[in-house]
């Protein structure tokens, strides 16, 4: 644990030394752009797309003839063939053979066409996965961004209440010096202030950790003075959606599972093509002879046509493999229906979560207004001598808690909203 803590501290120091400079204000869109450019996942997605493009070129090459060149040389330490006058005046001690051939498939059970369709489909899948990865990176970045905004707003709450307690403590100290209150009253304020300072320390530590996590995810240079530009003001004015958008055509997961089903159907066609006749034609030219001997050079051109019919596969091993392919296709169909249902439930849940979060803002605002009014009344009553310091401190604590809960509800809505828009393929404003 000590070693891990030391490594974490070392990373923090290095990042801090690199990013320590004047305050930098970061926008949400800027954060997203940086995360997209920095993400290793997205860089790998681009490589996978390039790999799929290469697979398409490979599949297209099956339409063209396959050409081969061959050469063979034989050297014998003794004569391979003795002289046979008058047919062969000299013995043969070495031979050579050169050949060139080209074969053109005419029909291979539709495998070439299906193979090209499958390669094109895999390129589509690679692009969909890249978009899915991009959307995921954008979602995580946005959630981390609003989490930092929440920390910034909570810091403002702490600072405002710290000033309030400092003012009360100064007043208590003056009154204690004048002999108007007991020392116990001032100690109550100090206890409350100590609690606030403890929460402030925890908040600062959590903020720095969240900031480090954000920077390491987005590739933004780390700095303690890094600030998010946005605030949580105006969130409560967001209109409440009347119903969830359950259209799945723009959902990348839904599109991906549909492509997988198409892929399984093409693989079944490809497997069926293995048991259909294949026809191909070819030409071949060869020249052979001996070096420095009586064997003359011969040039032999030939053409050929081949037909292959895998008859035994129709009822044996091939039949069972084809059955397995068909079962895999049925499994993919069932999984498609299952994923479709899960996505509909997920979108509906995300909508309810977002709607509930927006409603919670209203309750939090009402609670905050009541706590604010209660604090004002307690301050007036304390100034008039109608209540003691305990009631004033309790009112201040309730005000601070209500303020903090309001900020949390605003930030929570931003996170829930981002999740809902991610599932529906939309973007937050």
UniProtKB/TrEMBL annotation:
- Where, by residue number, does the polypeptide cross the bilayer? none
Asked whether the keyword Cytoplasm is assigned, the reply is: no
Which GO MF terms are attached to this record? efflux transmembrane transporter activity; porin activity
Is Transport one of the keywords? Answer: yes
Q: Choose one Gene Ontology CC annotation of this protein and give it.
A: efflux pump complex
The signal peptide stretch is: none
Which keywords does the record carry? Cell outer membrane, Coiled coil, Membrane, Transmembrane, Transmembrane beta strand, Transport
Compartment(s) where it occurs, according to its Swiss-Prot or TrEMBL record: Cell outer membrane
Where would you say this protein principally sits, based on its record? membrane
**InterPro entries associated with the record:** OMP_efflux, TolC-like
Taken from the record, one Pfam family name reads OEP
- Recorded coiled-coil stretches: 354-381
Q: Which family does it belong to?
A: Belongs to the outer membrane factor (OMF) (TC 1.B.17) family.
Protein name in the entry: TolC family protein
Q: Which organism is it from?
A: Dyadobacter psychrotolerans
